[in-house]
Give the backbone structure.
Amino acid sequence: MIGMAISFSAKLNRIPHYAAGAESVDAAEPTHSVAMLASNESPFPPVQGVVDAVARAAGSVNRYPDPAARELRKALAARYDFAPAGIAVGNGSCEILLAAAVALLEPWSELVYAWPSFSMYPHLAGITDAREVTVSLTEDFVHDLDAMLAAITDQTRLLIVCNPNNPTGTYLPSETIGGFLEQVPDRVLVVLDEAYVEFQTVEDPDTSLELLKRFSNLVILRTFSKVYGLAGLRVGYALGSAEFRQAVDTVRQPFAVNHLAQVAGTEALRHRDDVARRAEWNAVERLWMEEELAELGLEVAGSQANFCWISLGERDEAETMAALAGAGVAVRPGGGLGGAGFLRVTYGTRAENERFVQTLRACIA
Ligand SMILES: Cc1ncc(COP(=O)(O)O)c(C=O)c1O
């Protein structure tokens, strides 16, 4: 046998393993019958107009995509009435997060974020060797903004607020975020990660964009992966300063966003009514799920997203996961997300949600 003489970077030891959503379900279960409630995806395919546009564009993928994604950035600029120079697009918003870390963080510098929050944030420290400072959520599972302010030091370069927060679904109003931003030194770049913002119903999802007019150190991150149902194509975007866009573009490969993703994103922006309908549908499922879980006597964090964070109390997380997997229901165990004793469950179709609740009811009985 040939021995491996290569030494990989020590950084690898700091980068957490990313567990894909369906890993929790028995591999023998055929994927089409599994209720995929583990990855906060849309249970619906993209709208037909987007599918058609992608099909038409497939014939020209012998060419490299536009490295500047001009059409998509122009469409985003029109949608948000925002200067295209400050709009970055990425291979999913994850790519923009990773690029922001590379562009901003040095090994001596600090990155502040809440915990539990999006499982990608620890990667940002891992790939840059920066020091990560995590701030626990409050008892109500919301960002503890005062504690986050107190965690800022002279070394802090990047701070992330995830709103609604993944995995808890909790939401802070834009006014509260604005009050927080007033106190953050303007040398600290703040990423407001709004991957799920279209699902929140307490204020117009565009309210937070007003903050961009007041804070030059703010970047708002959004994605086509969730409410638009384009997770498989990988396309997300950031609204911020032209300097931020240039910095993330500098550290990435030039053709980061593929042609089909650019076309799909541009077309998706023409179907805002469908987005609104899907957000409304999600709000109905959210309410239904909350009522069902309350009947089971389970506590749930107040969600404004397309998923919920359920406390299992005394119940065993691994046993509950096994029962769900046996019934072909994939959800996320809280233990893997920074909150043992919880489940994170994405709202699927009503039939999938019913399968989840029935299985849980049987577990509890
Ligand atoms: C909070 C948050 N931000 C960003 C993303 C990344 O989304 P994408 O890279 O698909 O745009 C996710 C995906 O689950 C997320 O939960």
Remarks:
- The first strand starts at residue 35 and ends at 36.
